[in-house]
Design a protein that fits this description.
This protein is mainly β. Among the domains are: 186 residues; 111 residues, no CATH class; 90 residues, no CATH class. The protein has one helix and 81 strands.
Length: 749
């Protein structure tokens, strides 16, 4: 080739632009001033030429400065090195005329003080050989293309300056001993299938995209992107001492390989993926993201979809330690595994979202340990779990603060399974093993199972709706007594461990079947029992409702068994209370639209507040009785029945009792009698109407004393039968003796 030179010192001739260098050139001479610095070189191409140089020999420059170059071209040109270049700086190409330079290294370039290959303007550098440098391995100051299939070692590996389209392709090995493995200052794209090791950052791109199929290992940051997208594909591995992948602004991270972050464990932040401005992270099946925190977003909302594995290994003192932490709100979907862990007593969460409302959907596995938990939403939001949540130690399965909702159709296992504040609604159709607690209002809707030492605690008022099973070793449901509370039970609901109402409402709801509840010793602290319209509930045999419990009944209450039912407080509403096979005691007010039914023959209705009884009596028949336990029998002056209304009169008042369907009675005759010495009145249907004088008082010896009475005529229609026991006999004798003026005195019991 023309211009072949084999000598010890060369200054290229612009008139002979095509040059092949052979042999050894060991020298340095003046090359001029570039970038305000004075350079020397073993081979120098003046700025007025555009050279095409191919070095096949050995070029050495023994200068002691980084401005002493092996080959220096003063203007853009093309250079191929298949030999060796050893100098303070290896190959330098100046010139920014807009003509791209191209450098291909197939041999060795060793820069003992400066840069291996330098292009001042835009261009292309392709290395399949070996480049070693103290400063930059390859530097494309004006941007361009850098392709490495060989080895590049330097303080920084490959550096591209500002440019509209910068590309770096690495299939070889890059090592940066002080700074970054690959650095692209402007818009750029990096594709790595090789190995990059760096003391600072493995790959840095101002704005663009990074594709990794190989290995990136760095002391500080694996991949840093000012903005743009990072794709760590299957087989790719990015690991770093602080951040595996860091985005300075909102961007996108895709991972199907391994991303590993760290931290110095002295309070610094460390993460597998760190998004300063929020963004979107997709961790595919087979992908792994780990660090002191797995994924962290600080200044913008995070969107995360995980089908792989995300793990935060933080420990006490770490600034942030979580599987996923979003400081400005976010939306997270998990079908894989997300976990946060601590060896002893750290504050670590599986997912932690602050700064704005968060949304978390888990169809996989989430785990947290110690004080935080599996999912923590500090500023409200929504949690939907169809997977599994584990929280060990003192941690919480789900913690939602300041409003939102929790919907569990999966499995939650934690001492404190779900803790909420600020009016959160919790819906459970799955299995929760641990406490469900709410503060400042809130609603629990349970169709599944909740089991814990203390199953449900409501502080600050709230509502619990149960159509499933709640089991507490010590308490099933507990309401703080200082606020408005409501417990709603659906037929089929089961609460073990009891419920304390805190002065609230116990609501028995409508269902497709009849509900059954055991109140005695199981439910306490409620002020109102509310039975919904068309609801049907059976109360366990012998149920007794305290006088502090008002009953608002718009449905049907049925007493089971023969032990009867006692309602000591007020009864109101538009429903029915049925005594079943036993007696019914109503000690309080009974509302006008409430129906009171006796379930069978021979039952007794005990009325404790006759003056406040306004209800309607159903299914009354022969053998049934009504006892007015709050009315002194000695004060009763008369009994009458007309138009389905029974009136009991006394000296200062009268009491009326309305019967449903009186036409179904066998007759409309009633008798008044003393009931076993009780201070009351018993009304029982008989063949004839009979008024009995005030009850006699029994002496201590058991004898009966009949008080004096004033006589008045009585109609024959109210004269009792002269047969049927001692009462009938006494009646007959009195009638025969006194005639039409005789009172009827009947002592029974």
């Amino acid at each position: 080739m023309a211009g072949t030179i084999d000598t010890t010192a060369v200054t290229l001739n612009p008139g002979t632009p095509d040059v092949v260098l052979k042999g050894t050139i060991d020298a340095y001479g003046a090359a001029g001033v570039y970038n305000s610095s004075t350079y020397s070189a073993a081979v120098f191409g003046p700025a007025d030429g555009k050279f095409h140089v191919h070095n096949r020999g050995v070029i050495e420059s023994d200068g002691s400065l980084n401005t002493d170059a092996g080959i220096l071209l003063g203007s853009a040109g093309n250079l191929v090195n298949s030999g060796e270049v050893l100098a303070g700086s290896g190959i330098l190409v100046f010139g920014t005329s807009g003509i791209a330079s191209n450098v291909v290294n197939e041999g060795k370039v060793h820069a003992t003080l400066g840069t291996g290959v330098y292009l001042q303007g835009a261009g292309t550098v392709e290395n399949s050989g070996e480049v070693k440098a103290i400063q930059f391995g390859l530097e494309l100051n004006g941007g361009g293309y850098a392709l490495n299939s060989g080895t590049v070692t330097g303080g920084a590996g490959i550096v591209l300056g500002e440019g509209s389209g910068n590309y770096v392709y690495n299939t070889g090995f890059i090592k940066a001993t002080k700074r970054d493995g690959i650095s692209v200052n402007g818009l750029g794209y990096v594709n790595n299938t090789g190995v990059i090791k760096a003391e600072h950052a493995g790959i840095v791109v101002g704005n663009g995209e990074v594709y990794n199929y190989g290995k990136v290992q760095a002391t500080k940051v694996g991949v840093y992107l000012g903005s743009g997208s990072v794709y760590n594909n299957a087989g790719g591995k990015v690991s770093a001492g602080i951040f595996g992948v860091e985005l300075g602004a909102a961007g996108y991270v895709y991972n199907a390989g391994d991303i590993i972050g760290g931290g110095d464990r002295k309070g610094s932040l460390g993460a597998g993926v760190y998004l300063k401005g929020g963004g979107y992270v997709y961790n595919a099946a087979g992908g792994r993201v780990t660090g002191l925190s797995g994924v962290v977003a600080t200044a913008g909302a995070l969107t995360l979809s995980n089908e792989g594995y995300i793990y935060g290994s933080g420990s006490p003192g770490d600034t942030i330690a979580a599987g996923v932490y979003a400081a400005a709100g976010g939306t997270i979907f998990n079908a894989g595994t997300i976990a946060g862990a601590s060896n002893y007593d750290g504050v670590v969460a599986g997912i932690k979202i602050s700064g704005a409302a968060g949304q978390v959907t888990n169809a996989g596995l989430m785990a947290g340990y110690f004080e935080d938990g599996a999912i923590v939403l500090n500023d409200g939001g929504t949690v939907v779990n169809t997977g599994t949540l584990h929280a060990l130690g003192l941690s919480v399965g789900i913690y939602v603060k300041d409003g939102g909702s929790v919907n569990n159709a999966g499995y939650i296992d934690s001492v404190d399974a779900v803790v909420t504040t600020g009016g959160v609604q919790v819906t459970n159709t799955g299995l929760i093993r641990g406490l469900v607690a709410s503060d400042d209002g809130g609603t629990l809707v349970n169709f599944g199972t909740i089991a814990a030492a203390e199953a449900v605690l409501v502080d600050g008022g709230g509502t619990v709706f149960d159509a499933g099973t709640i089991t507490g070793d010590y308490i099933g449901v507990y309401f703080d007594p200082s606020f408005a509370n409501e417990l709603i039970l659906k037929p089929g609901a089961e609460i073990y461990g009891g419920a304390y109402g805190g002065g609230g409402v116990l609501d028995l709801a409508r269902g497709t079947t009849v509900g059954m509840i055991e109140l005695n010793g199981k439910f306490s602290g409620f002020t109102t029992l509310d039975v919904d319209k068309q609801a049907e509930w059976e109360l366990a045999a012998g149920s007794s409702l305290a006088n502090t419990l008002g009953v608002d009944n718009d449905g049907t209450i049925l007493a089971l068994g023969e032990a009867g039912l006692t309602i000591s407080g007020a009864l109101f509403g538009k429903g029915t209370v049925d005594s079943g096979m036993g007696d019914l005691t109503l000690d309080g007010r009974v509302g006008q639209k409430e129906n009171v039914a006796l379930g069978g023959a021979g039952e007794t209705l005990y009325v404790g507040a006759a003056s406040a009884f306004s209800g309607t009596i159903e299914n009354f028949q022969e053998g049934d009785a009504i006892v007015l336990t709050g009315v002194a029998s000695s004060l009763v002056t008369g009994v009458s029945f007309s138009g389905g209304v029974l009136t009991v009169s006394e000296s200062a008042a009268s009491y009326t009792f309305t019967f449903a369907n009186p036409g179904s009675f066998a007759h409309d005759k009633f008798s008044f009698f003393r009931d076993h010495g009780e201070a009351g009145i018993t009304l029982s249907p008989r063949g004839q109407m009979s008024f009995v004088a005030p009850a006699a008082a029994a002496s201590a010896a058991g004898t009966v004393q009949v008080p004096s009475v004033s006589y008045a005529p009585i109609a024959s229609s109210v004269v009792p039968s002269s047969t049927g026991g001692s009462g009938g006999l006494i009646d007959s004798l009195l009638q025969q003796t006194l005639g039409a003026l005789a009172p009827v005195v009947t002592l029974q019991g």
